[in-house]
Amino acid sequence: MEKIGIGPNVFLPMPVVLVGTVVGGRPNFMAAGWASRVNANPPMLAVGINRNHATHAGIRETGTFSVNIPHTGMMEKTDYCGLVSGENTDKSGLFDLFSGALPGAPMIRACPLAMECRLVQTVDLPTNTLFIGEILGAYADEDCLVDGRPDMERIDPLILTMPDNRYWSLGEYAGEAWSAGKRLKKGA
Ligand SMILES: Cc1cc2nc3c(=O)[nH]c(=O)nc-3n(C[C@H](O)[C@H](O)[C@H](O)COP(=O)(O)O)c2cc1C
């Protein structure tokens, strides 16, 4: 098929997370698609947050943040957290919260998987800051675990595509990673 240049403003499919921190003394959550695991050991996550967001100031101030994975049933509240700012709207009462070791990283009880992170590095980019955090604790609903590990089918995460700005649920299981390509390895 012939390729058509579409310009550089393209995106990867991504799970949506709720980034939690404390803003002006109260818990605050924002929707984020630009989040990823970025280091193996110690486990680290990075989130790309626009400099104008209240969350940006909150993470800088507290040096901590949480990353909460909402299930598809939480779409409305998740989207709301991406529409309004903690700068002028109190989002602290939206969710039932719990905390682990880090008081500046409030976590959402309704999210089947939540992680608390200590800020270890920041990378200043033209519009956003990449906040890199070490995961100090992770908490999952018991019924979302299979063999003690988070099972994404049970977690039922919200997936975001851009630039069409649509939410999706996880698709069909397709195969085993680090295994499906083995037949093509030389000598196998
Ligand atoms: C689905 C979705 C994903 C978003 N992803 C990001 C993101 O990755 N980075 C970012 O800076 N803003 C992102 N936003 C925008 C912020 O969530 C939004 O501006 C929010 O109101 C900021 O809240 P705060 O000011 O309380 O931090 C996203 C919004 C939506 C709806």
From TrEMBL:
* Cofactor field: FMN
Q: Which InterPro entries match?
A: Flavin_Rdtase-like_dom, Flavoredoxin, Split_barrel_FMN-bd
Boundaries of each Flavin reductase like domain copy? Answer: 12-153
Which Pfam family, just one, is annotated for this protein? Flavin_Reduct
Q: Which GO terms describe its molecular function?
A: FMN binding
**UniProt keywords, alphabetically:** Flavoprotein
Q: Which family does it belong to?
A: Belongs to the flavoredoxin family.
According to UniProt, the name of this protein is Flavin reductase domain protein FMN-binding
